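Model the whole thing, not chain by chain.
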Amino acid sequence: MAAPMLRWGCRGRRWAFARVDGGSCHRRGAPTGSTSNQIRGESSVAQQPLHTAQKTRKGEHKWAAVVGLEIHAQISSNSKLFSGSQVRFSAPPNSLVSFFDASLPGTLPVLNRRCVEAAVMTGLALNCHINKKSLFDRKHYFYADLPAGYQITQQRLPIAVNGSLIYGVCAGKKQSQVIPKTVRIKQIQLEQDSGKSLHDNLRSQTLIDLNRAVGLLEVVLEPDMSCGEEAATAVRELQLILQALGTSQANMAEGQLRVDANISVHHPGEPLGVRTEVKNLNSIRFLAKAIDYEIQRQINELENGGEILNETRSFHHKLGCTMSMRDKEGKQDYRFMPEPNLPPLVLYDATSLPAGADPQQVINIDQIRETLPELPSVTREKLVQQYGMLLEHSFTLLNEVGLLEFFQNVIKETRAEPKKVTSWVLNTFLGYLKQQNLAVSESPVTPSALAELLDLLDSRTISSSAAKQVFEELWKREGKTPGQIVSEKQLELMQDQGALEQLCHSVMEAHPQVVMDVKNRNPRAINKLIGLVRKATQSRADPVMIKEILEKKLSL
Amino acid sequence: MLGRSLREVSAALKQGQITPTELCQKCLSLIKKTKFLNAYITVSEEVALKQAEESEKRYKNGQSLGDLDGIPIAVKDNFSTSGIETTCASNMLKGYIPPYNATVVQKLLDQGALLMGKTNLDEFAMGSGSTDGVFGPVKNPWSYSKQYREKRKQNPHSENEDSDWLITGGSSGALAGPDPRDSTTVHEPINKPFMLPSLADVSKLCIGIPKEYLVPELSSEVQSLWSKAADLFESEGAKVIEVSLPHTSYSIVCYHVLCTSEVASNMARFDGLQYGHRCDIDVSTEAMYAATRREGFNDVVRGRILSGNFFLLKENYENYFVKAQKVRRLIANDFVNAFNSGVDVLLTPTTLSEAVPYLEFIKEDNRTRSAQDDIFTQAVNMAGLPAVSIPVALSNQGLPIGLQFIGRAFCDQQLLTVAKWFEKQVQFPVIQLQELMDDCSAVLENEKLASVSLKQ
């Protein structure tokens, strides 16, 4: 259907396809015919209070939202960015803290090579220019989870700049059209993560766990996005890329990927509005919700004659709204200063690599480029080529965690055609998962079970409606194999040609009128006959076969 | 024995003339007797004796670790010593016991040196007279020396330099080399330990005299010694030329901006949370930070932190910090130019004059004193050059005066070779403390008479 449209974009571009629930997208574009007059007219009306706060009035396309993102991804490495202590999720508090992590006086940072490689890989995958020389800085502020009183980051000259991320937003009636969008990557920088604070209000104390100080990649996306859905899709694609590269597990629920959004609204053609920063977004869904809420809140505020404060807000997912974090002191001055204990980070490529350099001591950008793992966009193209599926199917397969692997395991074990597998996985299997809100990992049906089922279907042992029944049984988690279920419930198709012919005959005898209709070329009549035969066989006959026999008997 | 040079003592240990334990005990005894000098914050008697015991075993088995095996050393209290309190002479770190050794300390211990204790300093080494630490000022041992007392019978003087290593003589070979825990270390292999060669040919040397270092405040005695030293080199055939370091006058201000900025940053970690002093206030984290840092730091440290934070503010960063970095480049280039003109080593004074009496010294505040006294020695920090100060002669008052040699970047060996030759020529007298050691009680009497309230 949308296939011709999807042939946009050349190889090597990155696409994402996401069916994100909720999130009405404010359509961008030129304001309608009633431009400035209406806007002026509107602003005088804006003095009066509006009743419904949440809904956009029809015909009001005069607001454009501008959304930028700051994404922090924890680097997947064995040790931390500047010290040798281990990285491990859920270790006992303060059990993975080196002298440097505790900021004991006299301790010094030593840069982790793996983290630098991760940054270069990510930069290359996002089309960035890799700075052959980058610098480290100290960003100062006092907070209990920042033992040194400063964070080491890369403010002046980060490791990678000026890249792009292409993602596809679904649109059209059935959300089956994919529109490519690009968001520019401003920069990627390496920085330390802080520790974790747990506020114990009961005892009026705060507990600090310094395990977390791992390496972070901060990816800054320019404000090229215009609504929650776009932002969510872009983030999803970035997640897939990071996971494919292995540079970060990017699991938002585990805090490996954190997103802050910068949101403002304005009238198209006018300067950008004041922006707010929304933090504490720890799932893709909440990300979209929070952004859309904030956009609407700002619009309402401005239409009511209020003003937007340049502040930080936090998203409360239970209430579905953003709330001001009430910064007591105005804007922080971080007193950036070059980090005196780390020399400039110098990277090489094939041309600049000094002769006889110890490979342990240098990083070669070209070498990393050559060994980049397969990126999601390439994976999707391969799926389309290899299995003849639609591009949008490949998006779904990649978007759902674990689904691609499940699919590939089924393919391995079954004789059935890939198209059949695709259809069963994306429609039936995924449908059941979604209905019960389960992850692929929680599925009661294993790839082997589905493979066996599809084999039975393929060999015409059972009909497709019988197969659906079997699937439902499998989902009940009773530990039976498809074969067992089929024999228990006697779902095998009638193999006995003779018996089937007899049944057809008797049905034909019993319903002479229908037979007459068929003979009179009534196209629907044959289906009625088939239906009757099927009923007589308790659905144990293959309708295709029934049709064949009937047609023969009727000499059609 | 304690008045001998390190080389002599080392030889004596090797030959069995004295054992490490005997040496250690003599040292400890002297430390006790000279307690009034207030040179030590911590005396690590048990540790030292244990190390001495192990050293003795090694000597017995003929397995000594080298020239430093069994040699008593003391380390300034701003170097981390594992298991031994390290205070930096500050309330902030009273009771702080580090879990690791600073690299240089580790290297010394690996060579078998005996750690006698941790020595006193200005709080966090911020100052030029060792007067502003939380444990009180350090007394200059020279003011108790026979040489001084013969010339003058008056109140004791302050130490003009922090009491540093009590090592004399060239055993630096044991400490040289890269530090694996420091990312800015230079990765050049050193053949350890290296012995300083004797200076083969003085006539091949070119000594540079920076003319901007001849400042009006320079005492005539120091100037005279400086001149004599230059003459000495010339008389041996070396070339002695005047050079210019035109940006010298900006050096101290430049240093001030950069140093305080780094201080403000480095001291941010002292908040009472992980280690060190923590105040009693627990109303809020911020209140706790504020009170802890007020109680933990003295005025000097707080002053530098405030200045540094001022320079790092967004609106000031360009005008102060970046400007200072640019000026720093100019200062460093001055030295590069001087060395490029054929100079091997620069010869300058170390201080403006001999040690000033304590009461005189404290008339000016720490910042002023530092600005005055550091003018010859902080430029090398700006330029990243090796330098060494060698005691040359006693002043008319009987107090030591030294001169500074500055070498080319990474040419430490050449620098020290020249300094070693010079040291041999001047034959600076050993401090005569015998009278002092025999007559402790008399000294203590003097102490009470001359006591000055040290609480601020």
